[in-house]
């Protein structure tokens, strides 16, 4: 529930670059803009987004007049100095993982035990930018693109953190609704679900990752390089014998090996029921199986 008592109502729309998030952004700007004194649309690029994601963000910006602020992490390599931001755009944003590598240099390889990548690559740059324009902590709300059929992803501290989930609270939108909306538009993301987020994101289930490893192994060159260079960086890196990205302490090489030596059914987006995307039984499908975007909270 949004508190309407504050003198000035400020809203940050956290545009992830996904289809649902784009729908939410458009819906807010068309239906709720008169309820806010200021609205800022932010997109935080990690440098490992698929090119189609970047194209989609740019196309939404042009066709829907989102006025997106493109941000990237500006890592300060000093103790007790937090990540700041830099403003980029579609033409000059990072495409080779540059911000991601700087985060890894300082904080180490992110994984299930050390899930700092979203915090440092998305949340902190957005917060830094909003501070730079005079928005104080706790003075603004953040809109998050989570649908009613993925309500279990809502942050339990939503009121404390001033998070707004309009596609759950104001207009009940499902994945099927999102599909139908984009089918009627002149453009769409055009990216299969398992390519969403950072293309090789360690949060994806193993079926998606192994499918990607077979169809497009070059996308794993970046995480493999990061493990070879920075496995002992960050807290407890040396003590653990080096960190790796993937679940069950699998390295990128382990994952690629499993993909080429294991008999499994490849992920097929057409076989996923639009309203039933969380009901998996196989261990390969665990962990945010149908999530198409990496939200800041």
Describe this structure in words.
The chain has helices at residues 19-31, 51-64, 98-107, 117-132, 158-161, 166-169, 175-183, 206-215, 221-230, 252-261, and strands at 10-14, 38-44, 68-74, 84-88, 140-143, 163-164. It is built from 10 helices and 6 strands; from the N terminus they run βαβαββααβαβααααα. The model is unreliable at 274-281 (pLDDT under 50). It is α/β, with parallel strands linked by helices. The longest helix is centred in the middle third of the chain and has 16 residues, at 117-132. It folds into 2 domains: 10-194, Rossmann fold, CATH 3.40.50; 206-285, no CATH class. A 6-stranded mixed sheet has the order 4-3-2-1-5-6. Helix content is 34%, strand content 10%.
Protein topology:
Blueprint lengths: L9 E5 L4 H13 L6 E7 L6 H14 L3 E7 L9 E5 L9 H10 L9 H16 L7 E4 L14 H4 L1 E2 L1 H4 L5 H9 L22 H10 L5 H10 L21 H10 L36
Parallel strand pairs: 1-2, 1-5, 2-3, 5-6
Antiparallel strand pairs: 3-4
CATH topology-level fold name of the largest domain: Rossmann fold
Count of extended strands: 6
Judging from the principal axes of the Cα atoms, what is the shape? globular
> Which range does the strand content fall in?
5-15%
What value does the average pLDDT take? 91
What would CATH call the architecture of the largest domain? Answer: 3-Layer(aba) Sandwich
> Which CATH first-tier class of the largest domain would you pick?
Alpha Beta
Cα(first) to Cα(last) distance is 17 Å
Number of domains: 2
Q: For the largest sheet, list the strands in their spatial order.
A: 4-3-2-1-5-6
The CATH homologous superfamily name of the largest domain equals: HUPs
């Amino acid at each position: 529930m949004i508190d309407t008592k504050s003198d000035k109502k400020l809203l940050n729309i956290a545009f992830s670059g996904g289809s649902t998030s784009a729908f939410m952004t458009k819906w807010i700007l068309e239906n709720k803009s008169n309820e806010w004194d200021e609205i800022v649309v932010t997109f935080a690029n990690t440098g490992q987004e698929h090119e189609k994601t970047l194209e989609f963000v740019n196309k939404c910006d042009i066709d829907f007049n989102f006025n997106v602020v493109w941000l990237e992490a500006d890592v300060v390599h000093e103790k007790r100095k937090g990540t700041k931001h830099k403003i980029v755009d579609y033409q000059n944003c990072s495409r080779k993982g540059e911000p991601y590598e700087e985060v890894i240099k300082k904080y180490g390889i992110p994984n299930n035990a050390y899930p700092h990548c979203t915090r440092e690559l998305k949340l902190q740059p957005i917060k830094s930018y909003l501070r730079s324009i005079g928005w104080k902590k706790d003075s603004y709300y953040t809109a998050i693109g989570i649908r009613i059929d993925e309500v279990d992803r809502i942050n339990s501290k939503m009121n404390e953190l001033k998070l707004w989930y309009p596609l759950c609270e104001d207009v009940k939108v499902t994945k099927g609704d999102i599909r139908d909306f984009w089918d009627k538009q002149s453009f769409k993301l055009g990216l299969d679900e398992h390519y969403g987020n950072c293309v090789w994101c360690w949060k994806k289930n193993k079926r998606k990752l192994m499918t990607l490893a077979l169809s497009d192994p070059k996308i794993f060159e970046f995480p493999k390089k990061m493990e070879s260079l920075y496995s002992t960086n960050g807290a407890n890196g040396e003590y653990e014998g080096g960190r790796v990205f993937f679940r069950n302490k699998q390295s990128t090489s382990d994952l690629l090996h499993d993909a080429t030596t294991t008999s499994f059914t490849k992920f097929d987006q057409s076989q996923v029921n639009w309203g039933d995307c969380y009901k998996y039984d196989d261990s390969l499908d665990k962990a945010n199986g149908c999530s198409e975007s990496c939200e800041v909270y």
